[in-house]
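Researcher: Hi, I'm a grad student and pretty new to this. My advisor asked me to get structures for two proteins we've been looking at. I'm not sure of the right format, so I'll just paste the first sequence and hope you can take it from there.
Model: That works fine. Here's the first sequence with its structure tokens right after it:
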Amino acid sequence: MNCFYDLHIHSCLSPCGENDMTPYNLVNMAKLKGLDIIALTDHNTCKNCPAAIKAGEEAGIVVVPGMELCTSEEVHIICLFGELKEAMNFSAYVEQNIIKIKNREDIFGEQLVMDSKDNITGKIDYLLTTASNISVSNVVQTVNEFGGICYPAHIDRKSYSVISNLGSITSEMGFSAAEISNNGNLEDCLQKYPILRSMRIMNSSDAHSLEMISEAEKSIELEECSARGLIKLF
């Protein structure tokens, strides 16, 4: 079945996410925009995924539990899971393997953990945008061991991308997919990095505000519109 998607969305738990990016709000905005399946990918944590999945069940939209991991090279990697338990186990692993720096709310903003009805249930007091000790060289294997899949985020950008930070994307990294920003130049990337022609290219919003969430323009063919169906495709 053909499913409209946005697989790179941040909630108010990400320090760069606006406070109105609550699980309830972002799920229902995605529904209003006509999306069928979205992924919640906060920086280095999955702790708002339970609320987003529940909100999605109530709204009738599939929410894939995920994360935007920051590797030791400060490369951003989209990590997606077919089951919430897998995502939360990976989240706990990342929490143990991340540089802990106290969050400055006056600079970076609050990092809010919420339930599906917009109630604040907690905060994370260490900054979530710092690097982990997970390397690009072993990130695919590590995420696979937790039952998920991963691919480099916004490879067309000049910061926090595998190309900007490491100079290229190679087969040795083990990626079968890559993300280009919604407004990125796909043809330019394909010409510069032919390896991308053998990869599945995803386009997602990296939304940090409600208006940034993708419109129903990009779609993907799935056997079933579910998190597990998405993982099976990859």
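Researcher: Oh nice, that was easy. Here's the second one.
Model: And its structure:
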Amino acid sequence: MIQQFHNISEDEINRQNRLTPLLSKKMPEIIIDNYSISLIEHHWITISQQRNFHTHRFLEIHVPYLGQGRIITKNQQAYYKPGTFTVTPPSLPHSWECVESPLYMQVWWLIISPVNKKLKEQSSSYNDLIIENLRSASALTYLLHPSFFNAYDLMLQEVDQYRPGSEIMLESLFKQIIILLARAIKPEHKPDTFQQNQRPGKLSNRMLLSRVDEFIQSNLNHELTLDEIASHIGISPRNLTRRYKKTRSQTIWQTIAQMRMTKARILLQSSNLSIFEIAERCGIYNKYYFSTMFSKHFGKSPSSFRKEMKTRKDDD
């Protein structure tokens, strides 16, 4: 029997192996400022021996859940275990081996590329910087933020119960995971060193949508207005509404509601905050409206959802 780590059981491992191929197929390409990020494959592997030196055309990330491994390049080597992750840039010859078995880990294959190279040369943002850090990481292993596991579990739930709005949820959660990984590379950089906005007229609809979603995600803990969002982007509320709905096929308010409910679900699973405190952190200051909204979205009340998650955890 495989030993447990972070309450991971053999049943959970089987569930993950079943859902990860679907995750690779259903995950949409995301845009973070000037970069497009595509998940070309995601899978789980169990390693018991050494892998010969090899290269990839994509960025490779390993997230170990069990055991300990060692990654080796021609110039350096590093050990990795649960609570860390590895980053191997494209075209870097590398090898890895199992140090403590079983070495069981996630593997992510990503392609990260500038959306518009000419525009990229003209303007940089803090988001660009941290994505570039991920794209060209110089070390081999980094500390993994605990929130990674919450976002990942929610991604699997969305794939397992695919329904209207799941593509939006997956896109939002994928962005969270990428940012969490990228921040771990060089967390000391400050956003005020860089230009924060490009000229809105130069942005494609997809890049505009990405900017709006990032702003919403960062401000879910308070009430948002259309004027506030439009002012941040630098265009009129009417133009923003039209372009967003045309690109996303839903309104900004629908996206805000979906993101708030995703955050609520994470907090219900991962914290001991009261229902009212969670509602406030999601920017909703009436707990009865919050409960109605959550029930409409997930088919059960916040308290019932929390009780169900606790029962599942206890069973594991």
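Researcher: Is there anything I should tell my advisor about the second?
Model: You could mention this: The first helix runs from residue 10 to 26.
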